Amino acid sequence: MQQTATAVKDDAERVAFPIPANVFAEKVVSVKHYTDRLFSFRVTRPQAFRFRSGEFVMIGLPNAEKPVFRAYSIASPAWDEEIEFFSIKVPEGPLTSHLQKVQPGDTVLLRQKTTGTLVVDALTPAKRLFMISTGTGIAPFASLVRDPDTYEKFDQIILTHTCRDHAELAYGVELFEALAADPLIGELVQDRVTLYSTTTREITPQMGRITRLIETGRFYEDLGIAPLSPDTDRVMICGSMHMLKDVKELVESLGFKEGSLAHPADFVVERAFVG
Ligand code: A2P
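Above: inputs. Below: predicted complex with adenosine-2'-5'-diphosphate.
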């Protein structure tokens, strides 16, 4: 029997489309809107869906014969029973203009294959792991900071999150509050994981692009930590294109070498989803 799902095709019309072959059709469990640009949602997890924390998957909606799929970092850890995503809302975006309207009970499509470079296996072991993110680029790190495997490989984890304004930082702040209270790994992560949030457009106590904060040393002063060094540290980078380029150049200037699963090394980079 062919599966179908009812979806909002446009605002007025609800139409049933067949579910494409080889995709999981999962139900939305919850949705949370943070700002007019950002929201998160959780979907049911199929038994057969396996991934490494930090990876992404292609997702779409059953709203066309050939649905639009986009790469989304999985924000939940590999052990979680549900799958979480953190998304931008682009008014004219082929997927996000529709995705931002999902409600509990709606269907979301997931391709079966997951992939990505932001996995701990692409890095060689070290003392500290720095995760540098802007905007929705925090998503893969939301997965990794909730995974005990990350703490097996690194003693200290420092996650930076930079957004335009204060309200956009809420997802990361809530993530850390929940992490500290988590009965499974709250104790394990205690004193080992730090969130460093900054804004660039709204005036807050901690302001500035992460590149500038690193270059001036303010970042190290604020946290009371030793400067980045390939001898002790590894770096993961996820965010907008310009940020990736600038942070990559910065860490390369400090002697960090880019790693991959085939050749693990000092840092890895991935573009956050937009559109
Ligand atoms: P800024 O406000 O100075 O552009 P966006 O919402 O556009 O994706 O941006 C998310 C955050 O990334 C913003 O705080 C933005 O700062 C910052 N950002 C943009 N480009 C860079 C860059 N090249 N290096 C560091 N941070 C950047």
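Residues 134-135, 162-164, 200-201, 209-211, 239-240, 242-243, 246 surround adenosine-2'-5'-diphosphate (CB under 6 Å).
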